[in-house]
Amino acid sequence: MRHCNFLSMPFPDRSLTVVALIGAALLAPASVYAQGGGRGGPPATAKASAPIDMTGYWVSVITEDWRYRMVTPTKGDYQSVPMTPASRRIADMWDPAKDESAGEQCKAYGAAVILRLPERLHVTWQDDETLKMEVDAGTQSRLFHFGNWTSPGGAATWQGDSVAQWEMPGRGRGGNAGTAKSGNLKVTTTHLRAGYLRKNGVPYSEDAKVTEYFDMAHERNGIQWLVVTTVVDDPKYLTQSFVTSSQFKKQADGTGWDPTPCSSRW
After folding, report:
1. Can you give the pTM of this predicted structure?
2. Which pLDDT tens digit goes with each residue over 49-66?
3. Gap between the Cα atoms of 186 and 184, Å rounded
């Protein structure tokens, strides 16, 4: 079993703290944050205009859906996924040995599901317009592109093409542009290689679109949380949007960072 910062359910006070943080981060209305520079100056870069600082190391904190996220679910356990009949037929044929022989052990590590795994993240700026997220589970790497970036094309990949934009809460009439920034990151990912929404073969297709909202919350004791709401839309295998929320706790350094290969069986 892979490492994670697991908060067990017999301690409701700690779990409720995470729930409260999620609510605080997600209730505020958001509008696109204009990445403008000063008067007469060039537009600010995505890095310079960031309303939140996601850089550093984060560890997943799993307090719900334990049987889907900490172990491989049993075949046929598809609860809560809005599957089409075609999706169910494919999942019923799931065979991890066949995935291994085909070299497709990373099917459950694509962008649609990667942040649901027990894992650590390392977030850095690759350049002023590209945020990089490394994931030790499956040794995956994602790039979030800001501005007018366009996809180079080519074959679809597990992590796809991600376009990012900062969002900020509306300031309302009379808002002061000089106040401290707050907001969130929205990432839209397409051009995905078909994979699994769960490790037991629940599929998403190459037509899937993944929309993620990254919010941060801070406790008075200094603990920082990253809350990621993931919305998967797939006209081929889902009857409606599949929405999940995952939480990560900020780490002081890279202790515990452990890149591991993809696995079809754990």
Report:
1. 0.84
2. 999 999 999 999 999 899
3. 7
